[in-house]
Specification:
Blueprint lengths: L1 H8 L22 E2 L11 H8 L7 H11 L5 H5 L1 E3 L6 E3 L14 E7 L2 E10 L4 E9 L2 E4 L2 E4 L5 E6 L4 E3 L7 E7 L7 E8 L5 E9 L17 E4 L2
Antiparallel strand pairs: 1-7, 2-3, 4-5, 5-6, 6-7, 8-9, 10-11, 11-12, 12-13, 13-14
């Protein structure tokens, strides 16, 4: 439950701030490449992607097995099991067994970007109503783990970078935009919505953070997360 509790911690406060815009670090070198480069075990990421595209309706066990195969070329499990403490900004690697990540650990979603290019959201952990994900950007023979500045409890970017994300919306990835939504509780009336800009090299920059606090009572109407208070904006 540690991974999920950290995601939920971001939704506990909605304090506006005048923090400066974050500047993403240079993207790291690819962590995996196809057979034309020095790939671990000769891993062919395009062959993996081609099969993944055919598995939308496959059984969960088969999808998880294929997601686990991706770990042979790009270490999404390490990304999943590395977290940043929102209070201290310290990074900790705390590996968990696949069976401790919930029944969906290793499942994935493929969002098409272009010929030979896609972004894959791999489930790190899934709890009662939401999970955490690693994002793998595949471009030709290369694959990268996407990273972004971590956020503190008030939704302000930190110097440390995170590589696991709450529920992602990848529908606008081709336009350079990624959104994530972390519920503060199951009904989704509170939590954190983050909008990132993708630089095309493997790094995400925080553009906007919206938060809504969890109240003591159930609201009659729940405004959509896109209308929640802005607590950080780089624009």
């Amino acid at each position: 439950m540690r991974l999920l509790s950290l995601l939920l911690a971001l939704g506990l406060s909605a304090c506006a701030s005048d923090a400066p815009a974050d500047t993403p670090e240079p993207a790291p070198a690819p962590v995996a490449a196809g057979p034309e480069a020095d790939a671990p075990n000769g891993f062919d990421v395009q062959a993996w992607l081609a099969q993944a595209r055919t598995m939308e309706t496959a059984e969960l066990d088969a999808r998880r097995a294929h997601g686990n195969a991706l770990a042979e070329g790009v270490d999404w499990k390490r990304a999943c099991d590395t977290y940043v403490d929102p209070a201290t900004g310290q990074e900790t690697y705390d590996p968990i067994a696949d069976e401790d990540g919930g029944i969906a650990r290793g499942d994935f979603e493929v969002a098409e970007v272009g010929p030979g290019e896609a972004v894959v959201a791999v489930v790190c952990y899934f709890g009662a109503y939401q999970g955490s994900h690693a994002l793998v950007w595949i471009d030709g023979p290369d694959a990268r783990i996407l990273s972004a500045p971590a956020l503190d409890a008030d939704g302000q970017p930190l110097a440390a970078r995170e590589r696991q994300f709450s529920t992602p919306d990848l529908s606008r990835f081709a336009d350079g935009v990624v959104e994530t939504f972390g519920k503060g509780r199951g009904m989704g009336d509170c939590g954190t919505l983050v909008r990132y800009a993708h630089d095309g090299r493997g790094a995400l920059a925080v553009r906007e953070v919206r938060q809504r606090e969890c109240g003591d009572t159930i609201p009659d109407e729940i405004p959509p997360p896109g209308e929640w208070p802005v607590v950080f904006s780089s624009q």
